[in-house]
Amino acid sequence: MSQQLAKVLSYLFHPVIYPVLGLLIILNVGPFYVPPQIINLSLAFVFTGTYIIPLLVSFLMLRLKIVASLEMKEAKDRRWPYLIGCISFYFTAAALEKIGLSNDVYLYIQASAIVILLHFSMLKFWKPSAHLGAIGGFTGLLMAISLKYFIGLLPLIALCILVAGFLATARLKLKAHSPGELVFGYFSGLLIVGLVVYSL
């Protein structure tokens, strides 16, 4: 894999895309009807809470020289953005619970906050992969929804596993993580999100 392709894959499958993708999956394949207006409002709300707010805070931290770059290559640069992201995800999930959507919606965002918090807690000595944690969590969501409602999502699950393999290769090529950080990132997302969404 070339360096350029590795960068493209890292940007294309960035962690920020998965909360909105997960919401789309839940609202469109779940066994319940949600009016289009509610779907659009929910998407806008989740996009703001899980992308816009953490991004604005990251830019502010960059301006204040709290982080060295938005790529956050060093573990120390991830501490405050992870903590702010975790808080933002948590309050987004809490608000979604009150809206009255399917439990799976806020459980997915809430479980994602737990994954971020877990990764945050390890930053003093390790740098778990956020990229693999995010796609692992998304795959865990698909598995949970598939088992919970007997929906045939196997082709999409297989595609996500394939993409995770390419993404892990890309992160190794860019020397962004060790193999252990990639494996831990993936399975922490897969297991936490999968178990929370399926069992609650």
What does this structure look like?
The protein has 200 residues and is mostly helical. It has one domain. The protein contains eight helices and no strands. Helix 2 packs parallel to helix 6, helix 5 runs antiparallel to helix 6 and helix 6 runs parallel beside helix 8. The model has no long low-confidence stretch (mean pLDDT 90).
Question: Which terms would index this structure?
Answer:
globular; 76% helix; mainly alpha
Topology:
Layout lengths: L2 H10 L5 H12 L6 H28 L15 H21 L3 H19 L8 H20 L4 H20 L5 H21 L1
Q: Short description, anyone?
A:
It contains 8 helices and no strands. The chain is mainly α.
Main sheet properties = none
β-strand amount: under 5%
How many domains? The number is 1
- The radius of gyration over CA amounts to 16 Å
What's the total count of β strands?
0
Q: What is the string of helix and strand elements? A: HHHHHHHH
- Structural class, by secondary structure, is mainly alpha
Average pLDDT reading: 90
Helix content: over 70%
Unreliable segments of 5+ consecutive residues: none
What global shape is seen? globular
Count every helix, treating DSSP H or I runs of 4 or more residues as helices: 8
Gap from first CA to last CA: 40 Å
